[in-house]
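Complex record, two chains
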Amino acid sequence: MVGITKDQVKHISRLSKLSLSKDEVNKFQKQLGEIVEYVRTLELVKLNDTAPTSQTTELTNVYRNDLIGVDGLDQKSALSGTEEVYNGYFKVPSIFKKV
Amino acid sequence: MKIPKTIDELQEDLKKKKYSATELVRYYIERIKKYDKKINSFLTVSEEYAYSKAKAVDKIISNNKNFFNEFPLLGTVVAHKDLFLTEGIRTTAGSRVLSSYVPSYSATVCKRIEKAGAIMIGKVNCDAWAHGASGENSDFGPTKNPWNIRFVPGGSSSGSAASVSSGFATFSTGTDTGGSIRQPASFNNLVGLKPTYGAVSRYGVIAMASSLDCVGHLTKSVRDSKTIFDVVRGVDGKDSTVVNSKFQIPSSKLMKIGIPKEYFDVGIDGEVQKNVYSAIDVFRNAGYEIAEISLPHTKYGVATYYIIQTAETSSNLSRYDGIRYGEYRDKFGDEAKRRIMLGTYVLSAGYYDAYYLKATKVRSKIIEDFRKVFDLEGIDAIIAPVSPSPPFKLEERTDDPLKMYLSDILTVNASLAGLPSLAVPCGFSKNGLPIGFQIIGPKFSEYTLFKLGEFYQSQNNWINKEPDLEE
């Protein structure tokens, strides 16, 4: 059983910007461990020199003309999803502590 | 008032003035008010909006009866999965993170459907962020299966399926990343289309796993599915994966249909097997050539899918920071947390090669399997079950995420390969629950799938069966 450790759960929750309670850490350790164990069945596939596939369109470098779109969002619409506005800007939580 | 099941009949009624579009909307709204407490398919009913659109439609009809040619969906009533942005109308993705989010623009598909004359009646429930195979991961409560409310309607397009099946709308939109249109369609006696990856724009549709997400729709008839596909497909300049492809012209000869043995080897329920074999017999008896084929990497589909999909999900959901719109990340439900963390894990330093990179290579093997049967063995289309079981009971799989993931075993492979697949109803289990099969084809073979589906539907009357909501 390879599974996943509690410390790994805490580590990936930090990377994912999710804060977990102690109970959640226990619950997710078990559930994620089972899933990780299951997906390891891929080790049985003979791959040799198989190339990876990241998308299926067979397209590369799709460009559009470099023009300003006429149907973009104006400032008012762009800010319509938040009440935390200051002088036409998004107000964000501070990331530095006051000293 | 008897509401017809298909777009053609509905438009015929409107032409003959059997009822007006306004009366039609009132009929649907009254049904929703009467029955949807039990089903929980709608998150938002846009009553006022629907009546104002209906009025406009009635005006168009009274001025010129030939408008149906210009507006192929004129007078039809649509419910959008709550993953589709609708300007001015709340869009939640089934998650508390977006419980009060009102978009300032609409998805391309919603715009095209509206421009074709359809009337939006509201936004329907789904598993939060389209994560699920039962509808039970919605933060706004599970949707129930109208054929028996103790059972799940399937997911993630749970409300899309339950609303059309319940007679609350003419058709609905959905998204299918690993089976989220096909499985609920088949759990509700409906037709569900997952188009070729790149056939329909995802602009304005909340992203889950970007190399897999497809936008499609749920209808009662295959013919309606085709009518809507003609409206929504094609380049919009806002989703760079979309191409105006040359679609395959369906062969006029009797086609060769492949039956993949691996799809029947995964512990298929006996009744599903029986019904799908009967459907295959319909084609055989009509003279179609039926050949057993092998897609040897089928059994690795779920593992491959749950690595690639969660990796992409973790990236897409990282944009929800609660600053520009929506709530903070503590409002994510358990399933979103699991997928974000699993995706972060398979992409993280030290694990990337063992999980993510490996899965992308197995994906190539799965694509190769399909290519072989279509290109080398001369198979025109593949027929297989959609779900290994008929609809299952509510709460039967909620405690075991892995068991829930395995519900996708027959749908994820076409998704990984970017192929179109059409789910078609093929009868009922002994206790009256719907069962469906899927027709999978090569890329951009949608019209071949429609031709086969239309033929099958002409050979039975499943479309006329309706759930009893009074029960």
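Note: The domain at 6-43 of chain A is CATH 1.10.20 (Histone, subunit A).
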